[in-house]
Design brief:
The chain is α+β, with helices and mostly antiparallel strands. It folds into two domains: 7-138, Aminomethyltransferase beta-barrel domains (Alpha-Beta Plaits); 199-270, Beta Barrel (Elongation Factor Tu (Ef-tu), domain 3). The protein is built from five helices and 16 strands. The chain has helices at residues 25-30, 76-90, 140-149, 186-194, 249-254, and strands at residues 7-10, 15-21, 45-51, 57-66, 69-75, 96-99, 106-110, 119-120, 125-129, 136-137, 200-207, 216-218, 228-235, 241-248, 258-259, 268-270. The strands form three sheets. A six-stranded antiparallel sheet has the order 15-12-13-14-11-16. The chain has a five-stranded mixed sheet with strand order 8-9-7-1-10, with helices on one face. A hairpin with a 5-residue loop joins β3 (45-51) and β4 (57-66). The longest helix is centred in the N-terminal third of the chain and has 15 residues, at 76-90. The chain is globular, with a radius of gyration of 19 Å. The two termini are 27 Å apart.
């Protein structure tokens, strides 16, 4: 493992932070989210998500745990609606949901030795809330590109309720548990997993042209019908743009994804750090 300091990026301009605390916080979140909240130790983080009853992702986020409860790092555009929706389900549980974005800064770290003060997510990624630890300064575009290269799909405005967790590869990055019990949409997510009905996956692509979340991609195998959509995109220092595209497995297998139109530019499919199951 490298001893080089990690890259560090201030995520505060684009990401909000919700704190969920109280005696019933673990049980409450465990019954709502797709990953195993109860298994998350203090000082660690995990990828997680929240689904509609139809099994479609409303939001994806990093969930961290400290001695006081849980912290949800999520796109700022969703913070108010997600906080409101969580409070709707609290009922008589001893749970408090607060937006602490105004008082707590948030930083993403990756690509080096993650300091002990950070909430570690995997071997070389973590999050720091409050005081930023030392690191190599990086931009929001750098952060986005690092997630794309790690194959981590983030639901953003324009892609809400478009993907079941497996379409976004959350089963491949440890972002969904199939043993934790019920949560909204769990039956559909489980059926997708065990009945072999998954038709789409996320792949990493490169284009010479800018890509935007929600943009359709096409394939000769599907004619004028969209074969998928762009989930996340960022400029590449190597030139052009890189993106995660959720697309039909048949089109991915044929290597025939076209941007924007059936006759649009052919997208180069790039490797991910994990195999598509």
């Amino acid at each position: 493992m490298t001893s080089e300091p990690p890259f560090i990026c201030d995520l505060s301009p684009t990401n909000a932070l919700l704190r969920v605390s109280g005696d019933d916080a673990a049980e409450f979140l465990h019954n709502q989210f797709i990953n195993d909240v109860k298994a998350l130790p203090v000082g660690a983080a995990q990828w997680n998500g929240w689904c509609t009853p139809k099994g479609r992702l409303l939001v994806t986020f990093a969930l961290a745990r400290d001695a006081e409860g849980y912290l949800l790092l999520l796109p700022a555009a969703f913070a108010e609606a997600i906080a409101k929706r969580l409070r709707m389900f609290v009922l008589r549980s001893r749970v408090k949901v607060e937006d602490v974005s105004a008082s707590v800064t948030r930083h993403g770290l990756w690509g080096g030795a993650i300091p002990e003060v950070a909430f570690r997510l995997g071997a070389d990624r973590g999050f720091a809330f409050g005081t930023a630890p030392p690191g190599r300064p990086a931009t929001l575009e750098d952060w986005s590109l690092s997630l794309i290269r790690d194959g981590v799909v983030q639901v953003v405005p324009g892609t809400q309720e478009e993907f079941v967790p497996q379409m976004a590869n959350y089963d491949l990055i440890g972002g969904v548990s199939f043993k934790k019990g019920c949560y909204p949409g769990q039956e559909i997510v489980a059926r997708t997993q065990y009945r072999g009905i998954l038709k789409k996956r996320a792949v990493r692509v490169r284009s010479a042209q800018p890509l935007s979340a929600g943009e359709s991609v096409y394939s000769p195998a599907f004619g004028e019908q969209s074969a998928g959509m762009v989930a996340n995109a960022a400029p590449s220092p190597d030139g052009g743009f890189e993106a995660l595209v959720v697309a039909q497995l048949e089109a991915i297998g044929q290597g025939s994804l076209h941007q924007g139109l059936p006759s649009g530019p052919l997208l180069d499919i790039l490797p991910l750090p994990y195999a598509l199951a």
